Amino acid sequence: MPPRTTIKGLSAELSEIVGPQNVLTESRLIEDYRKDMADYEATPAVVVRPSTEAEVRLILRVASRRRMPLVARGAGTSLTGAAVLQGGIVLDMQRFKRILKVDPVNYYVHVEAGVVLDDLNDVLRKEGFFFPPDPASSFLCTVGGAIAEGSGGMRCVRYGTMRDWVLALRVVLANGLATTLGEPLAKNRVGYDLVHLMIGSEGTLGVVTEAFLKILPLPSVPVVRMLVTFDDWPSAGRAIQDLRQRRIVANLMEFMDRETVAAVNAAFHTDFDEAEATLLVELEEPLMGAAEEVFRVHGARRFTRAADEEEAERFYFVRSHAYLAVKDLASGVQIEDVTVPIERLAEYLALVKEIGARLRLRIPTLGHAGDGNVHPTILFDRAEPASRAAATAAFEELCRYAIRVGGTVTGEHGIGIQKVSLMREQMQAHGGAEALRLMKGIKRVFDPNGVLNPGKYVDAA
Ligand SMILES: Cc1cc2nc3c(=O)[nH]c(=O)nc-3n(C[C@H](O)[C@H](O)[C@H](O)COP(=O)(O)OP(=O)(O)OC[C@H]3O[C@@H](n4cnc5c(N)ncnc54)[C@H](O)[C@@H]3O)c2cc1C
């Protein structure tokens, strides 16, 4: 933590920019900024709450001149330590709340970075549109955070991740200059693709203030949402593979194991079937017959079709809130985010169970079955060093296995401080050592003084 006199001088300078009511230093007030949602902790020196690009520019100038580390923060739902910073400035972007334009001809929306994804979709729905990427945290997370994390989500299986939906950005750089990247057009081939460099950059290359996002008209084909349960994972895995081989593409294809469904039932007073494997599936109505046949052939034990919109929403709610239910089962949590080739999904889930039994850990597991993205949620006792060590061992073994079978250590949550060494291992194992060197060079070009979210991600790998 910097000396008190430094913090005093810094907050005086920041107060000149945003007003004293938007500069927080008291520990009671900065408490909400000390953690992310996987309980990574760090205490900032100052929290500053700008609401205009001009203010962000001035703040970054102050940070750069003082060589003071700064992290942009949306809703703080990150699960990797990316959104917390010890002894630096937290730049809270949640006052960037405006939806500036919905363009119904060019199919884009122009938004500020602090808009919550579900709020965006509420507005778009009224205009007959939607923005497809839906991280399970979409009821909390911001446009800026989702861009900086390159977030995926439940509809990814059909529509891809944030990476596929950003046309242009307004960004403030470490030196306090602002620039536009990309164009809000269906096609644009001017220059290197800095828009996509910014997506997934975890706040280390610049601060996003505005975004132009592609949107789609609401689907006109009726859809069906259902829960399908199985008595074992290999059968569920074969069903998922078979659907793909028959080119039946789902809108949603999520999974939860028995322990996750039990935690959901306990937390939300629901009574979903606590089977070994549960799939949450949404399909276009005309595909339903063929899909149900596939599930039947592979031994599904129960289908529960949502009777109406309200029940369909309830199915979605339990999956999107499942992590929060599971997290509350223990004092410590390490959430994995590996993505494996889809045909290895069932084998991977068997490994999770084997490691859990061997290391005496509870590892409720959920994830995005349709794209092989698995979230084993390793629970441990924070007060018990042996339990913490076992959780770390399980975490690393699960990541290394994914690397060995051609997977990645992160499909959507990113690296933060959680997976720095595993990112390096993966890149080396998959022939990307030189790419990592280039990435470190890019970081130096964008942020020569190492002000933006330093000591994490590419910087630390
Ligand atoms: C219950 C739950 C479910 C989740 N499900 C998913 C899921 O399905 N898919 C998924 O991908 N993730 C998921 N996550 C992880 C997380 O919610 C996403 O990464 C989310 O997009 C982060 O958004 P945020 O606004 O909370 O960002 P924060 O957590 O505040 O920040 C995350 C990163 O983005 C940077 N950042 C934030 N705003 C800006 C900005 N304006 N400019 C530059 N950098 C910025 C921060 O510096 C940090 O590095 C889940 C988390 C929870 C708690």
Outline the fold blueprint.
Blueprint: H1 4-18, E1 23-24, H2 27-30, E2 46-48, H3 53-66, E3 70-73, E4 89-92, E5 99-103, E6 108-112, H4 117-126, E7 129-130, H5 143-149, H6 156-159, E8 166-172, E9 178-182, H7 194-198, E10 207-214, E11 216-217, E12 223-230, H8 233-245, E13 252-257, H9 258-268, E14 277-284, H10 288-297, E15 302-305, H11 309-327, E16 332-335, H12 345-358, E17 365-368, E18 373-380, H13 385-404, H14 420-429, H15 433-446, H16 457-460
Parallel strand pairs: 2-4, 3-4
Antiparallel strand pairs: 1-2, 5-6, 6-10, 7-11, 8-9, 8-10, 12-14, 12-15, 13-14, 13-17, 16-18, 17-18
Helix pairs in contact: 1-3, 8-10, 8-12, 9-11, 12-13, 13-14
The protein binds flavin-adenine dinucleotide (FAD).
Flavin-adenine dinucleotide is lined by residues 36-37, 71-79, 82-83, 93, 113, 135-137, 141-142, 144-146, 148-149, 151-153, 202-203, 207-208, 323-324, 412-413, 453.
